[in-house]
Design a protein that fits this description.
Strand order of the largest sheet: 13-12-9-10-11-14-21-19
Number of strands: 22
Distance between the termini: 40 Å
CATH superfamily of the largest domain: ATP-grasp fold, B domain
Strand content: 15-25%
Bound molecules: adenosine-5'-diphosphate
CATH class of the largest domain: Alpha Beta
Structural class: alpha+beta
Length: 505
């Protein structure tokens, strides 16, 4: 396959800029597309060329396949990178690109078909011998049948939209009294969000961890995993903070989950970057949740600890290059990402679009800010309000937490309200610092996290952190006599780099 020379990025905001940065480094020309609301957006300024694709609502611009294809032709692009969201997991769009002779930088349409609908994905995974969350593999046709099924498996259950994504059409039900109303609500939400009201049932797992495995495959069936990301800090089933390595994974469990993720990817002849999401229960059993057939929002943490550029790898795979790696690189150190939103936590996280009058972005060693905004920019009210992803690297988890806190304290956004204070509260919370937080963490600690300006809570967090570090150091002192019993100041003169590598094994 010939080398890609010009890429149209069919997206906006930080991810469009992220993709363009790598293209530039590879000597590939970039084309942006933009809606009426994005005339002055940063992704438009970053690209070599920009083409207008329609009115602000994404249904009339970024999601109109023909407009994107026309823009690619007009610009003379030979490939399209979809980013995440929008058309990134649309098999019909992949086929349309192929029909136009454009390279789609992503998996083949057939892999999307196999993984797109949750029920079909579950059936395919069962066939491939991958453990899935217990539940049905078909949408349930009537509320009577649904009730009968729940009587069999017992409460609590999760009603889920077969065509789901973004936490929509999902309802936890705990008692029969609530079943019918939840069923109706899930169905109508699914219809609204996905144009498809098919709903199925999963057993609701109590206090699970969301741990996902990054996979990567070339066009010749070489498939590897690139370790995990812990994404259990969620609000309304949406990730807020991500980190790698997962603080709860043993090397054995990592290897096992990685192997199963590769099996899942191979079963659908996957190509490129993909993510196999799992729920891990209290007994550390893991179950397939879904596969995201695209680059994830949280991919930077994987890049930090592996030293890889996943976008460059995607482009090379699309060009038909063979995968250079034969196995997962051992993760080096620790990385954390926080999602910075234009939203107001004190008003139920209502989006807070508007003009950014002042902006100071954190910097310093091992800090990365993937942002889509600049001072004077007006955050539009028609798109997702995420304005940036702040990620850091450090030799150890404790240092990564301190670095994230330091970077967040440098972050200043004026003119609009952001969730920065909320993110700081998460990073300072004893449960997060302890490292064993499940998907209920943010909901359970809602009040504490919002009241974090309360000096008592900060004091408590500090104290918990000191005690925790002390206990960990004591434990380590027993198992790692040569390390001098600590990670920070008391590491016996051992470099934190060496220590990080040593403690990872
Ligand atoms: P979506 O595709 O809408 O993002 P997912 O299936 O990926 O939905 O699930 C998102 C999150 O919802 C999970 O990370 C988890 O926190 C929660 N969740 C989903 N299914 C279950 C389940 N069966 N039991 C408990 N929590 C679940």
């Amino acid at each position: 396959m010939p080398k890609i020379r010009k890429v149209l990025v069919a997206n906006r905001g930080e991810i469009a800029i992220r993709v363009m940065r790598t293209c530039k480094e590879l000597g590939i020309a970039t084309v942006a597309v933009y809606s009426e609301a994005d005339r002055s957006a940063l992704h438009v300024r970053t690209a070599d060329q920009a083409i207008f694709v329609g009115p602000p609502p994404s249904r009339e611009s970024y999601l109109v396949q023909q407009r994107i294809l026309d823009a690619a032709k007009q610009a003379g692009a030979d490939a399209i990178h979809p980013g995440y969201g929008f058309l990134s997991e649309n098999a019909a769009f992949v086929r349309a690109c192929e029909a136009e002779g454009l390279t789609f930088i992503g998996p083949p349409a057939s892999a999307m078909d196999s993984m797109g609908e949750k029920t079909r994905a579950r059936a395919n995974m069962i066939k491939a011998g991958v453990p899935v969350v217990p539940g049905t593999t078909e949408p349930i046709p009537s509320v009577e049948e649904a009730r009968a099924y729940v009587e069999k498996i017992g409460f609590p259950v999760m009603l889920k939209a077969a065509g789901g994504g973004g936490g929509k059409g999902m309802r936890k039900v705990e008692r029969m009294e609530d079943f019918e109303s939840s069923w109706r609500a899930a169905k109508s939400e699914a219809l609204n969000a996905f144009g498809n009201d098919a709903v199925y049932i999963e057993k609701y797992l109590e206090k699970p961890h969301h741990v996902e495995i990054q996979v990567f495959a070339d066009q010749y069936g070489n498939t590897i995993h690139l370790n995990e990301r812990e994404c259990s800090a969620q609000r309304r089933h949406q990730k807020v903070v991500e980190e790698t390595p997962s603080p709860i994974l043993s090397p054995e469990l990592r290897a096992k989950m990685g192997e199963v993720a590769v099996k899942a990817a191979k079963a659908v002849n996957y190509v490129g970057a993909g993510t196999v999401e799992f729920l891990v229960d209290v007994h550390r059993n893991f179950y397939f949740l879904e596969m995201n057939t695209r680059l994830q929002v949280e991919h930077p943490v994987t890049e930090w600890v592996t030293g890889l550029d996943l976008v460059a790898m995607q482009i090379k795979a699309a060009e038909g290059e063979k995968l250079g790696l034969t196995e997962a690189p051992t993760p080096r150190g620790h990385s954390i990402e926080v999602r910075v939103y234009a939203e107001d936590p004190s008003r139920n996280f209502m989006p807070s679009p508007g003009k950014i009058t002042y902006l100071r972005v954190p910097g310093g060693p091992n800090v990365r800010d993937d942002s889509g905004v600049f001072p004077g920019y007006t955050v539009p009210n028609v798109y997702d309000p995420m304005i940036s992803k702040l990620s850091v690297w450090a030799p150890t988890r404790r240092e990564a937490i301190a670095r994230t806190q330091r970077a967040l304290s440098e972050y200043v956004v004026k003119g609009i309200t952001t969730n920065i204070r909320y993110l700081k509260a998460i990073l300072a919370h004893p449960e997060f610092i302890e490292g064993d937080y499940d998907t209920s963490f943010l909901t359970r600690q809602h009040d504490a996290l919002l009241g974090a300006e309360d000096p008592k809570l900060s004091e408590m967090a500090l104290l918990a952190s000191v005690v925790h570090t002390y206990q960990k150091d004591q434990k380590r002192a027993k198992t790692l006599p040569a390390a001098g019993g600590g990670q920070g100041g008391g590491n016996g003169g051992v470099s934190p780099w060496k220590l990080a590598l040593r403690t990872r094994r």
